[in-house]
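W.,

You were right to be curious about this one. When I first looked at the sequence I had no strong expectations either way, so I just let the prediction run and decided to look at it fresh. Below is the sequence, 288 residues in total, followed by the output.
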Amino acid sequence: MAYAGRMTTPEAEQGDDGAGAQRTTPEDGAPRPEERLEQAVRAAEQALIEFEIAVETFRVEVENFSRLHHQRLGAMYARLEELDARILEAKADRSGDPEDRRRADEARAALLPIPGVEELMHGWMDGDGLFPEATAMLTDQAVRPPQRVRPSEEARRLYRDLARKAHPDLAQEENERRRREEFITRVNAAYARGDEAVLRELAEEWAAGPAPERRPGRGEELYARLEWLAQRKELLTLVAKELEESAIGSMLRLAPDDPDRLLDEIAEQLAAQVAEREAELAVLLGQQ
């Protein structure tokens, strides 16, 4: 994928995980019939995990950027819209033109919000469910919005290490998959907050936990596993494409190395636009 060169296809991430695996053979030295399938499954699993790590990393940055963009710049956008409406109203007052008045009325009407789910729930939820802040308050947890778009290098290292070790796709039994899914959900939440301390605690928890046994599968099971991995890859490719083509994803591609700096640059541009609009409005009002 295009963003910072970090979201690549599983094939590009495979490396030597499968090809370099140690071979086990029967006593006569001949390779087992399932050996090549097992190597293919291991390589596909590792490639898929690396791809999922890249997609989840980008998803966190898109979500954090969206929230910080609204928190830091929402008021400036609102000020710009208010100034634009007032400028149109001042022009309409001066000209007396019905068309100018219509444009001014439309601009003013656009500033009046239409009540939606978020307003009705007083900022506690939107169409996708409770906001993280609301969930934290309801569960007596501290409200901790993201501090940065991109978590620290240490948080990213801890997250990737945990994802590679505890990924649900490595499970062969349903109970083990559920255990891993619950654990990775906690890992993802800590990473989204950039919480290094919690990620370290989770690493210790995983290291102390039971080591799941991997059962050698028959040929039919290995083929089914490869098919499932291929389907999962296709789904992730669609998710990654949707993220990249989103409005926020497009903005992040403008600053792949430092997305937090992009917020500062947008804020500077908005401040300049606000100053220009205020000066224009002052001139219009002074001429009345």
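Here's what jumped out at me. The chain has one domain: 42-212+229-286. And, maybe more interesting for your project: The chain has a mean pLDDT of 79.

Coffee later to discuss?

I.
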